[in-house]
Structures are given as structure tokens and as C-alpha cells.
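tool_call predict_complex ligand=S-adenosylmethionine
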Amino acid sequence: MTFPFHGTASLSAALFADTTLRPTLATLLTAASRAEAEMEVYYSRLIVASSSSTPSPLALFPYAASCRSLVRLELALLAALGAAPLSAVAFLGSSALPLSALLLAQSLPSSGHVLNVDNDATALAQGERLALALGIACLAGPSRLAFLRADAAQLGATLLGGQDAVWLAAPVGPMAGDKMDVVRSVVDGMRVGAWLVVRSAVGLRRVVCAEVEVEAVVRACEGKVRLAVEAHPSNEVINSVLVFQRI
Ligand SMILES: C[S@@+](CC[C@H](N)C(=O)[O-])C[C@H]1O[C@@H](n2cnc3c(N)ncnc32)[C@H](O)[C@@H]1O
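tool_result ok
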């Protein structure tokens, strides 16, 4: 499944500048986020059910390839920035199909650790079932993945202070104000030097995925982060990637 266009700059600018369309765009964004969550539950159950009989069960998920490309891009950006090898990362908004977190776990050294956080208990439990079902096949051991039910805005330094990098999934705190509350709280909990990877979107992709504005993040965090790099893929990867460093 591909979504290969940003749309022309003038079309997307006109669409998002039209105040009469704002309620419709907000409704579409909420619907897209809910649809993505439902789709993840469906495919997560299918993958668990197929895990013992299918050689590559994760490939059943239609977004598996684009998610792999996105995580590869994020890790390449961090490497290009000179980030020390990551050994502890947190993924906020891991969902019923924590594919990004599984891919991150596979990229870490064997002592590495991924903390999955989601505020939806059902989604989190399904995500853990999936990781356990695949654990023997594709991970060194399920203990490399921890699962925590919590709101991303409530984690604090105890949970975030030891992380080398923290990922914020695109639909976490989708409305601008909510998202900035989450970002501010997450950054407050991170140690100086750690990386914050925020998934965003540009152009017409903003219809289905919330945009995060760099200036809004820097402002909300009151100078505790600096933008290190931003990337806006124009291939099948829908998300843009913003990498900040805690200062
Ligand atoms: C659709 S998923 C996206 C992540 C995707 N599975 C991946 O691997 O990239 C978004 C998840 O974020 C969770 N979420 C939304 N707001 C949150 C918050 N404030 N704190 C924690 N989780 C949140 C939702 O419950 C949902 O499961």
C-alpha cells in the first residue's frame, strides 16, 4: 500500500489555510488515527494466530515494509548525527502492533532494552502477546521488551532518565495542545544528550497524520531541546521524522 505524494505545496497550503475546512480536517485526522489503531488490533491478532505457521508473520501487516523503511531512516539519521550506539530506548504509543519497537529491539545490542508505553490497556496487552508470540523466533528474548500502561505525559525521569532515545508515535496526543503537553513532559524527564524522535507529516499527508511544528516543540520545551535534523520522505513512508537532542 503506498501513499507516495505530499501534494503540491500550493494545494496543501490552501487546504490547511481554509478555516472553514478545519473541523473536517480535525474529524479526518481523528478517524485516521482510530482506523490505524483498529487496523493494528486486527493484524496483531492475525499475526499472533499465524506466528507458528507463517515464516514471516509480520509481513502480513500492510504497512510492514513502510514501517521498516521509517525505522531504518530514523536509525540512519541518529547514526549520522553521531549518536552513540543505543542500548535503552522507549517507544511511546507502541499500540497493539508494536512493530517499530520490535524493529528497534532487533537493531540494539543483545543487552539492549525497549520500553513500550501505551495508555490503552487492551492495545498494550495485545502488543505484549504479539511480542511473546514472536519472541522466540525473532528476538533474543522477550525480556528485551518491557510493556507499561501509562500516559506518555506522566512518565517522569524515573522511567525516561535512563533512555538513550525516546520515540513519540505520530498519533500520541494528536491535537496540537495535547501533543505539546506530552512533548514538554517527556523532555523534562530525559537526560541531557538523549535523543527525541518525533514522527510528524508534511503536505497533504497531514490529512491522515498530525503535523508537529519544530518551533512549537522548541517553544513548549523552553529551550531544553534543539532540532538536530528533520527528514521528509516522499516515498511510501508517510511520516516525516524530527530528531531533537535534549540540552
Ligand atoms: C496507532 S499507534 C502508532 C504506533 C505504531 N504501532 C508503530 O509501531 O509505529 C498509536 C498508539 O498511541 C497510543 N497513545 C495515544 N496517545 C497516548 C498517550 N498520551 N500516552 C500513551 N499512549 C498513547 C494509542 O493508544 C495507540 O495505541
